[in-house]
Amino acid sequence: MGDPRYAKLAKLLVEYSCSIQKGEVLLLDMVDVPDEMSVALIRATRAAGGVPLVEVRHSRVAREIQRGTDEVHSKLVRDLEMQRMKRVQAYVAIRGAHNASESSDVPAAAQKLYAKTLRPVLDHRINKTKWCVLRWPTPSMAQSANMSTEAFEDFYFDVCTMDYERMAKAVLPLKKRMEQADRVRIQGPGTDLTFSIKGIGAKPCEGLRNIPDGECFSCPTLKSSNGVISFNTPTLYAGTKFEGIRLEMKQGRIAKATCAGGAEKRLNEILDTDAGSRFIGEFSLGFNPYILNPMCDILFDEKIAGSLHYTPGQAYDDPGNGNKSAVHWDMVLIQRPEWGGGEVWFDDTLIRKDGLFVPKDLLALNPDKLR
């Protein structure tokens, strides 16, 4: 018999996250994932009346593909991927990685070309399909989380199959407050940042787009961000790990970006990818009660209880401010007391202090109520 946790996760992804209906085609994009999980997803799709379409990929192969890409090759990949994406109604990607830094030696120019050329495929998938993206637990992820492989696997399946319908109800008041807010102010150690989200709207994330989930996001209006924000969690982007990132914002644009550890040149190379990569595509508050510490994996780290993230580049989904970029880089700031604390204000209302929501209608999002 297979691991029963695989079947439970597959059922959640197919029936809840993607709500597969009879006759709908679900593209399963599997990267370094055990065949048993792919089989579980195929079976769950068919049980729901859907049609499974499977792509199996490997990160070492993907590295080599990008290392030697050129304009002709990347456009061919884009055209083929787009043709397939237009034939499906839903998409699930599970991405494992035996080595989180597998793509670290892919030339920056090649990464930039490949990402920009294939961006229309990503846009179509985000805007035209029902989709959900998640990681697969690996020893390297367990190591990043400072956990044993077995303990991390148990944590992974617990957090990925939590009661997301309960979360969906609890987040509605936060969505309403974001939709009604104008000015946002973020304060904390090394941080004093203001921007407007007026007229942008808000999007709650409760297991329909990412697993694990637990955030509600909006987006700064294009030229409204001013001040400074200092991030206290490591971040992995394009195969490179960054720590201590600090952004100075002037009229919506990143005027200066610094970081620790000698990676500043690479940081600014990424932020210079295109005209939109120094503007901001997302602002979000994270509240998953089971995710407390960073593990350098953004699908987990952006959901950390008491965190927020602020995203250079393009928004992945509506709401958005019209910014276009091949970059989407969620940078995470944890504001719980043990991480230095901090405050989030909407206009004249204190929304969250030291990682805990303050208004009565938002208390259900705090960890003691959401678990």
Question: Keyphrases for this structure?
Answer:
371 residues; alpha+beta; Thermophilic metalloprotease-like; 2 domains; 12 helices; 19 strands; 33% helix; 27% strand; globular
Architecture overview:
The chain is an alpha+beta fold and 371 residues long. The chain has 2 domains: 4-160, Thermophilic metalloprotease (M29) (Thermophilic metalloprotease-like, 3-Layer(aba) Sandwich), CATH 3.40.1830; 164-370, no CATH class. Helix content is 33%, strand content 27%. It is built from 12 helices and 19 strands. It has helices at residues 4-17, 35-47, 59-67, 71-85, 108-128, 139-144, 149-160, 164-170, 172-180, 264-271, 298-301, 367-370; strands spanning 25-31, 51-57, 90-95, 130-135, 183-188, 191-196, 203-205, 210-211, 215-218, 226-230, 235-237, 240-250, 253-260, 280-286, 307-312, 331-334, 343-346, 349-353, 356-357. The strands form 3 sheets. Strands 5, 6, 10, 11, 12, 13, 17, 18 and 19 form a 9-stranded antiparallel sheet that branches. It has a 5-stranded parallel sheet with strand order 2-1-3-4-8, sandwiched between helices. Strand 17 and strand 18 (349-353) form a beta hairpin. Helix 1 packs across helix 2 (35-47) and helix 4 runs parallel beside helix 5. The longest helix has 21 residues, at 108-128. The radius of gyration is 20 Å and the shape is globular. The mean pLDDT is 95.
